[in-house]
Amino acid sequence: MIHRTRLIPAILSVVVFMFVTQLSFGQRRPTSEELQVLRKDVDTIKANQADIEKSVRELKDLARSGQPTPPPPTPESIVLGIDDDPVMGDKKARLVLIEFSDFQCPFCARFVRETLPEIEKDYIKTGKLKYVFRDFPITSAHKDAFKAALAAGCALDQGKYWEMHDRLFENPTAFTVYNLTQNAEAIGLNKETFQQCLNKLEYETEVQSDFADGLKAGVNQTPTFFLGLTEPNSPKVKVLTVITGAKPYTVFKAAIDSALQQGK
User: Fold this and answer.
1) What span, in angstroms and rounded, lies between the C-alpha atoms of 91 and 130?
2) Would you state the pLDDT for residue 207?
């Protein structure tokens, strides 16, 4: 069964995370400067949450009005950007596979374990395709997915995104600050720099932006994939095909081969 997105307030999971991150201060009391930074972050999250709640109210009003819910966008109407997202493969490859994923989603883990290696061998390493990972943490079902996405971003800062990506999917239940720091040390990250990045929620805006873009593109489950073409020197992707769920490799192969023909 694929998990469906429910717009339940994300602020609770983020605030819990911020509380847990205080463990990194050890047993000492946070300084006034540290508390000021945390209060500012909470205020920002509350403002973002207000926007989400407004959208939810608008959707409820639309449902009560009896008006039909707008249909999901068609693939040819979707344009996605990949300007600041982690990329696997030749960045010059025109064909791109964008995944919206959740580090605690078992179906996403199955894709990483069973299907991605085949795609990597046949298309990514041969320069035919580049693969882009974007965050879509469904916090209503996976309470630590947002925290894991932040950790992956912090690993990206130190050039070890895919190493952290793989470790997170290998053990999707161990996302305490302690375990995430252990992962960081295991892949050779600077521990202090990594912890500081987590404490400051440096990738919060990026993760939220990914989630918002996914919603606009019609994502309502993970994993969801968008296969499309880029133009030279452009971060925009014109989508050709949407694949939902952890489909077998044969489904991806057929879609990729068809897209390669269209891109000639």
Assistant:
1) 6
2) 96
- In the sheet where 130-135 sits, what is the strand order? 79-81, 236-244, 224-230, 95-101, 130-135, 87-88
Cα atoms in the Cβ-side hemisphere of radius 13 Å centred on 114 = 12
Query: What topology does CATH give the domain 11-262?
Result: Glutaredoxin (3.40.30)
Sorted by where each begins, the domain ranges of the chain are 11-262
How far is Cα 44 from Cα 179, in angstroms, rounded to an integer?
27
pTM over 0.70: yes
User: Which pLDDT belongs to residue 137?
Assistant: 95
**Residue 65 pLDDT exceeds 70:** no
pLDDT at residue 132 is higher than 60 = yes
Selection from 47, 234, 211, 50 nearest residue 135 by Cα:
211
Say what percent of the chain tops pLDDT 70: 72
Amino acid at 245: G
Find the angle CA(87)-CA(112)-CA(136) to the nearest 5 degrees.
65
Contact 8, 139 (CB under 8 A): yes
